[in-house]
Amino acid sequence: GAVVSQHPSWVICKSGTSVKIECRSLDFQATTMFWYRQFPKQSLMLMATSNEGSKATYEQGVEKDKFLINHASLTLSTLTVTSAHPEDSSFYICSARKVAITGELFFGEGSRLTVL
Amino acid sequence: AQSVTQLDSHVSVSEGTPVLLRCNYSSSYSPSLFWYVQHPNKGLQLLLKYTSAATLVKGINGFEAEFKKSETSFHLTKPSAHMSDAAEYFCVVILDDKIIFGKGTRLHILP
Hints:
Chain A has 116 residues and is mainly beta. Chain A has strands spanning 4-7, 10-13, 19-25, 32-38, 44-51, 57-58, 67-73, 76-81, 90-97, 106-107, 111-115. Chain A is built from no helices and eleven strands. In chain A, the strands form two sheets. In chain A, strands 2, 4, 5, 6, 9, 10 and 11 form a seven-stranded mixed beta sheet that branches. In chain A, strands 1-3-8-7 form a four-stranded antiparallel beta sheet, with no helix packed on it. Chain B has 111 residues and is an all-beta fold. Chain B contains no helices and twelve strands.
């Protein structure tokens, strides 16, 4: 199966700093990647859809200036949480679709962000 | 509008007994259907998928799911639960380019 790598797995930062999370498709090209946020004991909440070479499409209620998404290549998308605050602490997960669309999503292992 | 309903937020079964996790979807035509499993502090792992081929789909770790169009269901089953099956399970529907997650079912395995 396809592999999606997410880094870092855990990150702790001070309030006011920015944090970057990377999502890489290791053995396939992904024209579309997705970023989710997951609160404890809840389902995944789609934050944005990231298409290679174009601007991300954000879901309603997600601040695009707060959560910067870049999809510069077919194998890498990044999520930057800018000026992080404790309420941004969460589990962030990315997923990717192969170029040859089968509909199947491949998920990263997730990144646990804790903002002090 | 499309939707996915996981009827049980929690399911508890004894080790060695069958597992049934229920999923119903709402769609005017057949979508692609998936079951994913999530262990604590981990990403989601694909268990199985239905994409308009055989209606009975076999997945990893002994899991199966049957697509029943008449009932708009895609329930996940396993004949004999193992302690390692304790996790959160998500039913996911993909229709056109829209991805819809169920709210998840927490599976507890009792010794």
